[in-house]
């Protein structure tokens, strides 16, 4: 098993499309497409987002993650995470988080006890209470000691992306085509 940072634009688009589809599911409306478009149109352009994969011994992707830098560039937040169909690989998303936490100043946000337990199993052992019941997990390399020391993760306004789709049909059609093309061309190996 190894972690791969997906830099090739076609592979990145394909992996991001698959990650959005897996993370949100089929009944999520425009959310997967808006996340795909906002990530590529804002965060990737600012070099603030990374798409990473855990690959098995035959270089097949078994888990995907989207990491986003914080405002000051001192840490990365797991924004999306998904298991893929990895035969013989147990809990690949947790393994990916565990690997990333060992190498980078990593932050995860858990919105319930199940998510927190999942990240605890991945080796995230420092936890802080965030707003609205969110629990914030910090990897061993994360420099913050309190919520007050946490810089905000960079993001985009999903509602604005959806509004831009409504105003600009060509933009919507372009991102939709890229999303579908990405799903269809998801790489068997990385």
Features:
190 residues, alpha+beta, 41% helix, globular, GNAT family N-acetyltransferase, 7-stranded mixed sheet, 7 strands, Aminopeptidase
The biggest beta sheet is recorded as:
7 strands, mixed
Per DSSP E runs of 2 or more residues, the count of β-strands stands at 7
Oligomer: single chain
Domains, number: 1
CATH superfamily: Gcn5-related N-acetyltransferase (GNAT)
Average of the residue pLDDT scores: 95
Question: What is the helix tally?
Answer: 6
Helix content: 40-55%
SSE order in H/E notation? EHHEEEHEHEEHH
Strand content: 15-25%
N-to-C span: 12 Å
**Structural class by helix and strand composition:** alpha+beta
Low-confidence segments: none
Radius of gyration based on Cα positions: 16 Å
Protein name: GNAT family N-acetyltransferase
What does this structure look like?
- The chain has 190 residues and is an alpha+beta fold.
- The chain has one domain: Aminopeptidase, CATH 3.40.630.30.
- It has helices at 9-24, 31-44, 92-103, 113-121, 158-167, 169-184, and strands at 2-5, 49-55, 61-69, 76-83, 106-110, 126-129, 135-138.
- Strands 1-2-3-4-5-7-6 form a seven-stranded mixed β-sheet, with helices on both faces.
- β4, α3 (92-103) and β5 form a beta-alpha-beta unit.
- It is globular.
- The protein starts with a strand and ends in a 6-residue tail after the last helix.
- The mean pLDDT is 95.
Which secondary structure elements does this structure contain, and how are they paired or packed?
Blueprint lengths: L1 E4 L3 H16 L6 H14 L4 E7 L5 E9 L6 E8 L8 H12 L2 E5 L2 H9 L4 E4 L5 E4 L19 H10 L1 H16 L6
Parallel strand pairs: 4-5
Antiparallel strand pairs: 1-2, 2-3, 3-4, 5-7, 6-7
Helix pairs in contact: 1-2, 1-6, 2-5, 5-6
Protein name: GNAT family N-acetyltransferase
């Amino acid at each position: 098993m190894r972690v791969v940072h997906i830099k090739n634009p076609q592979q990145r688009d394909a992996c991001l499309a698959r990650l959005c589809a897996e993370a949100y599911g089929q009944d999520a409306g425009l959310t997967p497409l808006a996340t795909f478009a906002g990530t590529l149109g804002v965060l990737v352009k600012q070099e603030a987002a990374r798409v990473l994969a855990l690959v098995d011994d035959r270089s097949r992707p078994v888990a995907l993650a989207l990491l986003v830098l914080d405002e000051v560039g001192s840490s990365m937040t797991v924004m999306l995470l998904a298991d893929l169909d990895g035969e013989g690989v147990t809990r690949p998303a947790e393994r990916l988080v565990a690997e990333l936490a060992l190498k980078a100043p990593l932050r995860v946000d858990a919105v319930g006890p199940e998510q927190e337990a999942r990240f605890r199993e991945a080796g995230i052992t420092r936890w802080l209470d965030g707003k609205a019941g969110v629990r914030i997990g910090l990897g061993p390399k994360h420099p913050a000691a309190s919520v007050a020391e946490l810089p905000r993760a960079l993001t985009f306004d999903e509602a604005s992306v959806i509004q831009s789709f409504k105003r600009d049909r060509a933009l919507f059609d372009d991102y939709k085509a890229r999303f579908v093309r990405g799903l269809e061309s998801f790489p068997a190996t990385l």
